[in-house]
Amino acid sequence: QQPVQSPQAVILREGEDAVINCSSSKALYSVHWYRQKHGEAPVFLMILLKGGEQMRHEKISASFNEKKQQSSLYLTASQLSYSGTYFCGTEIKTSYDKVIFGPGTSLSVIP
Amino acid sequence: EAQVTQNPRYLITVTGKKLTVTCSQNMNHEYMSWYRQDPGLGLRQIYYSMNVEVTDKGDVPEGYKVSRKEKRNFPLILESPSPNQTSLYFCASSLSRQGAYGYTFGSGTRLTVV
Hints:
Chain A is mostly beta strands.
């Protein structure tokens, strides 16, 4: 039931864009996105509740395609502070009281 | 400051010696949960609690116990720790699972069982 994230890792130069994908084999009630910096706790970025919904946190945005059971996180004009591991968390429609996290995508932004 | 507080941050213990990791939140959140984080596996849910005296198993509950006697506290108990429970543990809370709110995580507890 764990969602699949791609890519596993990505290296960007400052100012470049990136997309992180999250897909599930189950129908989804919601998708969460979190960022975890090395040695720190995960920090909540945003939640998407409806198909077609798009949310934004600073220059990071996300979309939710309910039919495809997928969500994508868009990092625009990346900054050094964006470095970290990004996790999606999915709530399955048949078990909405649990958030199951993906394995994470490691993002490194270099000068 | 709104936060989830875990203690201890680091713990080294021996196999079989009972231990408790405490978790407390000051946000009046209904929902609390424990996760363990292992390289390549992401965050896996151990137990969760929808409210006081209501707890349920997550995906990897074996070897763990929890209790929720007060709304703010959700301790994780390892009755007889084993080396395969060496991991980074996070407590998280949320206003409610109804309506789907984001989680606030504690700072983590790095546990080593030798």
